[in-house]
Design a protein that fits this description.
This protein is of the alpha+beta class. It has helices spanning 44-49, 69-78, 80-106, 109-126, 141-148, 152-164, 180-187; strands at residues 11-16, 19-24, 30-36, 41-42, 55-58, 63-67, 130-131, 134-136, 168-171, 174-177. The protein has a four-stranded antiparallel beta sheet. A three-stranded antiparallel beta sheet has the order 4-1-6.
Length: 202
């Protein structure tokens, strides 16, 4: 959909499906920066910075609405509530990036995995696509590996260990939190950084 270095790329609002943002390293390795779910912006920085600084591609079949630069600027001028919503979305994205950096730099492999799955679950709960029991998830072990800085073999080993310990199960496209409280404790997960309630709804 969007490629790093692309000039005057469009932004989109994802209406259906999952997408992913990533960077490709010189040796061909991929680092997934984030996963996008319905309601998320795709490529907002690309239109504000004029040049895309990362790649975006669909992880599933998607539907998205294009957002023009003029729409964004008009929104800031004429619709304060819309401008607030855009600022909130950008701020939450930044907060998630901070947590992802902590994941990669300081958390163990098990903590990274559980934290990321809890974050996805919390985001999906906001849009009615998940709850404390779990959520449908189309991601592969290769997606998880590239997001968490692990190998696919290591991801498989971690998921097996979490399942055998009665914490969570990720099979057949669904994440099930077998013991939500223990998973949250292991991850050290505090969802305050997600600030799930948009300020214009308060």
């Amino acid at each position: 959909m969007t490629y790093e270095g692309e000039v005057n790329a469009s932004a989109f609002i994802l209406a259906e499906g999952w997408a992913l943002s990533y960077k490709i390293l010189p040796d061909g390795d991929r680092q997934i920066v984030d996963f996008q779910i319905p309601g998320d912006f795709l490529g907002l920085r690309s239109i504000l910075f004029r040049t895309a600084d990362h790649n975006i591609e669909a992880a599933t079949r998607i539907e998205a609405s294009e957002v023009l630069t003029s729409d964004i600027l008009d929104g800031f001028r004429n619709a304060p509530r819309l401008a607030t919503a855009i600022l909130w979305a950008a701020s939450r994205d930044e907060a998630m990036v901070v947590e992802h950096l902590v994941n990669l730099g300081r958390r163990s492999a098990e903590e990274r995995m559980t934290h990321m799955l809890l974050e996805l679950g919390a985001r999906l709960k906001l849009i009615g696509m998940g709850d404390m029991t779990g959520f449908d998830c189309p991601l592969t072990q290769y997606h998880l590996a590239d997001a968490l800085g692990l190998s696919a073999v290591h991801v498989n080993r971690i998921l097996r260990r979490l399942r055998e310990d009665g914490l969570l199960t990720f099979q057949k496209g669904r994440v099930v939190f077998d013991d939500f409280d223990r998973v949250r404790e292991l991850a050290g997960f505090n969802m305050a950084y997600l600030d799930q309630e948009e300020p214009f709804l308060r």
